[in-house]
Amino acid sequence: MTIQPRLIVTGREADGTSVFVTDELPKPTVVGAIPGSEFYVLWGTEDGTATVGTKPRQPNVIPFFPGAGGTRVLFLRWAPESSAPEQLGDPDQLAAEAEERLPGLMGVFEPDSPGMHTTDTVDYGICLEGELHLELDNGKEVKLTPGACVVQQGTRHAWHNRSDKPALMCYVLVGAERTL
Fold first, then answer.
1. Over the stretch 105-119, which tens digit does the pLDDT of each residue have?
2. What sequence ranges are listed for the domain Cupin type-2 (predicted)?
3. d(C-alpha 72, C-alpha 66), whole Å
């Protein structure tokens, strides 16, 4: 059974009563620069310190990667590399489309090493369906299967779906400051 991402958000009324604010099936964002992948960008908080209370909060999901103290949560369905559609079109136009739909995403990728990227975030990645390989800059890989959780601490890496089925990951990104 394929998991359908669902977003449920709670909040508080002015009198402090807890309520459901959102319960929806989000639509995926697709970009030609990463063919076959579906991004379900669900929620994010502003950079700095997250707050809670009776003031209504709206998701802050732009840019794609949060700054220090900000967060993002998303599901990402990865197509198998063996059956992913070919990237079609002018690379500059594909990058512009990705920048419009998922601002800041493509800027982290290395042009000379397809898929490799580094972000100033601590990422919690949880494999929900299928399998995905995490490659580090030394070429070593680890295979994630459902139930695996990886803590990505701002290191250079790439993701690969080497299977014949889609893989679904849940990522929680926490913006961080890079130190040496």
1. 999 999 999 899 999
2. 113-169
3. 7
